[in-house]
Model the fold of this input.
Amino acid sequence: MSLDVLLKRAFHAAGGLSVVRFRNAGSNRILTYHAFDPLSLAGLDRQCEHIRRYYNPVSLDAVAGFVREGVSVPRNSVAVTVDDGYRDFYLHAHPIFKRHGIPVTVFLMTGFLDHQVRPWWDQLKYAFLHSPLDRVVVRTGSEAEKHFSLTDEASRRNAAALTGELLKSLSNAKRLAFLARLPELLQVEIPDTLPWVPMSWNEVRELASQGVGFGAHTRSHPILASLEAEHEIRDEIEGSRDRIGQELGSPPLHFSYPNGLAGDIDDRVRRIAGNGGFRSAVSAIPGLNRHMEDPFMLKRLSMDPELPMPYFSRQLAGFRL
Done:
């Protein structure tokens, strides 16, 4: 057993989690999820039980009021967000969050819901999982070529994930060009409809009537700082905002930056989001949110229903952030 594991066990046994939670009680946590495999729902249920036991769930509207105007929120407040708009939230996750009384804001990639675009990472995953090849050489132009073995499902998923990380460093135009070459590279036809499907707008409206919040997440999920022209950035942000407004009757108040790390949000992106009529924008930069921080650079904690509970509880408390 490693020293790191022993130290973490000792930390939990000594009640260290309660100390960290107490020290960070005045800060807000925003959690972000993406997908919900049906086999992981027991894990999501345990996470929700933990949130209800030790924290105070609040809406993203409340967080915006807290960071912008200092509006009071309960100590140890937690807001939950879900990115992209996959239908598995509607089918599997929403009933669990609802049963536990935890508010959720879902950020919608509107071109996905309109069946105009397929998430580029899903195209990668499908191509690598279904390729007849047992090895492939990937050249993105961003660095040296990568050799991947495709001998089993685990190696194929790993190759797709690592290729995805390489593509994040490219301009949007180069990333799209690589995706256009993907069927030839992997000798596979990528169908128009992938296994990972979006919610319908009728389902979005049904959830909205039950109190689920919705925010904008661009039209096609480019890394916004990789777009060359400001009008492209504006079209992605404002186009997503306006499309949601058309379907729900009022524009969304919150925005989520695709990928959302510091290098993905340049001054142009921050300015256009800030002028877009939103009350807040969330990033993927890890951390907690405190009073009077920038409401358009809110930090989030990346979560997954399959995370081990000790790790989940440490991250939620603010351990090592």
